[in-house]
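Batch manifest, entry 17 of 40.
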Amino acid sequence: MPPSRVAVVTGANKGIGLAIGTQTPSTPSNPIHPTTPKLTSSPLFPVRQLALQYPQSSFNTGPLLIYLTARNPERGASALAALQQDVQLQSAHALAQDGGLASIAYHALDIAQPASIRAFAAFLHAHHPDGIDVVVNNAGIAMTGFDTTVVHETLRCNYYGTLAATQTLLPLLRPSGRLVNVSSMAGHLDKYSPALRARFRAAATVADVTALMEDFEAAVAAGDEAAQGWPSAAYAVSKAGVTAVTGVLAREERERGRGVLVNSCCPGYVRTDMTRGGGSKSVDEGARTPVLLAVGEVGGRSGEFWQGERVIEW
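Output type: structure tokens
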């Protein structure tokens, strides 16, 4: 039976913040210059929770197909196998193999590579010409150290990659679809000068937000980002960019009148490799807000930043 609903979750790993790849420990005299970005993605928890919560959601109109994406086919296959053997999913009879509504498929996607995004979008359009229903942009990178290379690579993936994936996949969403960009409280604006906070909040176009990212990168290259009011933290600034540009894209989508909801969220401080097990939430607890925004009742809210299943001030 063909799926009634189609969802996409970017990234493929076992938990939020799990790093792909290895890096040399960073020291002041030995800044990290990785040849391969260290990806931190977390589809297992949203994919599992999408499969579990979809049957009770108002989105349920029949079978659900979830695309779990990863840039590495081996890791993607491993993630898919883990979900197919997941005890929680089996006991809930959530997957089609156990009599449930959800099916999960792997597809290659590297959000840091525009050609990969275009190829995935072409695949979706060819196989689902009527459109898709949900996108959770969840892939990203977190790199140790702080220098121009770290800043460039972090922005390239977290900001520019997420932006490209959003702009490419958003037109594929059917009316009343949902797009969720997983951001972070690390990008909260209390870390910025009043002038920069005002610029973030006044951003009305994608170009406005991109100009902020360009200014940050230039300030780091000049060695005076702190004097200009920026935090010396590539990940934090990249996530501020994600939150800001999500708001812009939500306003643009609202003007199209299709009823598509576009939001960003922070999953919270989750116990994963990225937090060295120091988080206060399990990965499934961290999935609650992204999955709420994907298939839950949110009162038609769009362009907001969410944490703990509620809108918060950014």
